[in-house]
Amino acid sequence: MTEDSKFDIPETLGRLSDSVASKVLTPSVVNGSPLPQTTLISNSTAPPDDSARWNAEEVRALAEEAMERFAKERPTASDAWLAPRLHYTLRLTRAEATDSGLWNFIALRVAPDYVRWRWGQEKDGRAVVGQAARFSGRWDIQCFSRLWWAAELFRDGEDYRPVVAASSNQDVLNTALRLDMNHHRPSAQALVELLEKGTVRTGRDVNGLVKAAGAAGSTLIYEVIAPDEPRDYDALQQWIDAAESDPVWNPNSLPQGPVDGSVPFRSVQRLAEWFENLFETAPVRGKGTEEATDRAINP
Fold this sequence. Notes:
The chain is mainly α. The chain has a domain of 147 residues. It is 54% helix and 2% strand.
């Protein structure tokens, strides 16, 4: 643990503005010096209401469990475990999840030691993160925001299993996550299906596929080829309102997300087939070499 873990953990989540975050994230802090706790506390604001979903202790418990559970593995392995449970615990609308102040608060007030553990490199006894954006940055780069959005974009209604498959591949999180195609639910599920089939395996495969898919069409075209069903926003709100009565996350089994509608199976299959055909001709560096090796090992 770093000195940041000695912080007084707040009872509830709040907001911390981008301007304050940028001031405290000096080069020395990014390189491992403790965060200025007094400044962070005095500039934090309270949550918008007293809902149980703003319970900071549960988010803190998630971070601690992830660090302990994956202590002997690469920190990247924690992403697939943490993403669905963070989404289940932080019951947000998409509009609420665009608030960078919330993610700044979590990274700087609730679990800065997790950010250092997940993204830091040990140097002279300190965890050097290297990028201030892991604490406070764009939604697909910030440590906690990227995981929440991965769960939101890749879940199939209440089913978080596709989130685990997507978050297990760093190139999905680093490249595919920010693409508009994944805001179209059948496109996101089609990518997951190719991952699970083993059609797309390596980071190069993922990058090659998303580039080919991006060049071949737009979200509008995907919606024509593979239409989606409208989400049930009443069901989503009921799930959000149930934060206080629902059980807390389980470390060994996946929770259940909002029952706001599954992705149409036929649309996913149609896009998966199209993406697979695109991938066959996609320029993927080293693809031919890997296939020849597979044939030699498994004739």
